[in-house]
Specification:
The complex is a heterodimer. Chain A is an alpha+beta fold. Chain A is built from 10 helices and 8 strands. The chains are: A alpha+beta, B mainly alpha.
């Protein structure tokens, strides 16, 4: 009786030990050198896998940094500190990251624009867009179903009163929301700029005003007050050239519909 | 010629008639889990074929030269699980070292198979049916191919499900399970076909 148990025990134990020894040997002899650089770089990346760098994720970017000659300042969420760490590991000159921030070009909340239909479908902008391009009289504005909210890796977006709002403090500038927006109203611009056009409506003044009280009417007042020639009204809509804008805020004061706004400062 | 015929019959019956997923309901979790996209399904299918064949090549000698000769047949399940798990780990390391491209394309599927019941099932079936070594290998290959076939077919069915309108309460897993049962019923049509293959 004892013999049987002993034999079974020994046989299984020996199989186990043989497997263990084989695996131990294998892990020693078949060990693949994981590139130390890649591991180090991966550790200092933020790991949100947002894809703002243009790679499939933080792992991919780390690999590319270690093996190919890739720019060290592509990680926008990580900003300067991460870029500096990466540059140190790779032994190259650190480059500054141009921190970006997302901005919703719409202020057409439920109080100022009207609906021409009642939407009961899937709560997704992409789906709402497929039915007559949304239910608001303004055909250009935010649909308010929150596709951007869903993709945001840092929970910086919330839809309030029918329009998406971006929390400047949380936004990492990855640009995923801009890609998700079917109306293309989310703009990514350098974080230093603090002025934003809150409208995407290219209809003529009077028509635009009818669809939404907060619309840009293309009056060109901002264009004339801008001291640095940064605002141009094209297609009845103001556009800010952020390479020229000095954040003076005169356009925001002059705008009659208050669709140009000084954005909240980032703390 | 007769042995060749019998091998063909074993292969065909394990691919179509005794399909592991659809007729024996083994390996259902990867079947439901990884069949969403065709390329993933194919990756998983080939990994399973590979692991099944190698596992059979290892477990058959263990059964016949170790367990049977010491009268330890009742330890079969434990020993096989142990050996297959170790084997898959070993294969993964070897692939990473020598064929990194294959390792990359098999990806996460290889370690997922470690404790797949279909793999354990095929190794035990080979013993129960008292197949010879060559027959065992052919049977494993057939089971793997059958798994691949089921995965590929079902990934097509699932893409259709995604596009169709389903009542709210059936959305997701219920609809998938119902579809799986339909595919499984379709495979019942193969029963009896193999015996008359060479008639």
């Amino acid at each position: 009786m004892i013999e049987n148990i002993l034999i079974a025990f020994l046989a299984v134990a020996s199989v186990g030990i043989i497997c263990a020894v084989l695996l131990a040997l294998a892990s020693h002899f078949l060990h693949v050198e994981e590139d130390e650089k890649t591991l180090k770089i991966r550790e200092c990346l933020p790991g949100v896998n947002c894809g703002a760098c243009g790679y499939a994720g933080c792992d991919d970017y780390a690999k590319a940094l270690a093996n190919d000659n890739v720019k060290t300042n592509l990680c926008i969420p990580g900003s300067d500190s991460v870029a500096a760490e990466i540059a140190e590991i790779l032994g190259v000159e650190p480059e500054d990251v141009i921190e970006m921030i997302a901005h919703v070009r719409c202020n057409g909340n439920c109080n100022v624009t009207t609906k021409f239909a009642h939407y009961q479908g899937i709560k997704s902008c992409a789906a709402a867009m497929m039915v007559y391009g949304g239910i608001y009289d303004c055909r250009y504005g935010c649909l308010g179903c929150g596709d951007c909210e869903k993709v945001c890796p840092s929970n910086a977006i919330c839809v309030h009163n029918g329009v998406a709002h971006i929390n400047n403090k949380l936004c990492v500038g990855c640009g995923l929301c801009a890609k998700a927006c079917p109306k293309n109203i989310i703009e990514i611009f350098p974080q230093v700029s603090r002025v934003g056009v809150m409208c995407n409506n290219t209809l003529k003044g009077a028509v635009a005003r009818k669809t939404c009280k907060n619309a840009c009417i293309g009056c060109k007042k901002c264009e004339s007050v801008c001291p640095s020639d940064a605002i141009k009204v094209e297609n009845n809509l103001a556009h800010i050239d952020y390479s020229k804008c000095t954040n003076c805020g005169k356009c925001a004061e002059a705008c009659p519909t208050k669709c140009i706004k000084l954005l909240e400062p980032i703390c | 010629m007769d042995t060749f015929k019998s091998l063909i019959i074993i292969l065909m019956s394990s691919v179509l008639v005794n399909n592991y997923v659809l007729n024996r309901f083994l390996g259902i979790c990867p079947f439901l889990g990884v069949s969403k996209k065709l390329n993933q399904a194919v990756g998983m299918g080939f990994s399973v074929i590979f692991v099944m064949v190698v596992a059979t090549a290892v477990t058959w000698p263990i059964q016949h030269f170790l367990l049977d000769s010491y009268g330890l047949g009742y330890m079969q399940t434990i020993v096989f699980i142990l050996v297959i798990a170790a084997l898959v780990q070993f294969i993964e390391m070897a692939l990473k070292k020598f064929i990194p491209s294959l390792h990359k394309s098999l990806g996460v599927y290889l370690p997922l198979i470690t404790t797949n019941c279909a793999v354990l099932g095929v190794t035990i079936e080979n013993i129960d049916e008292s197949f010879t070594f060559v027959e065992s290998i052919v049977n494993s290959l057939g089971c793997g191919l059958g798994f691949l076939l089921a995965m590929v077919l079902f990934s097509g069915v699932r893409s259709k499900i995604d596009d169709s309108e389903i009542p709210e309460s059936f959305k997701g897993l219920p609809a998938t399970l119902i579809a799986a049962s339909f595919v499984s019923m379709a495979f019942l049509g193969f029963a009896g076909i193999v015996d008359n293959l060479f008639a």
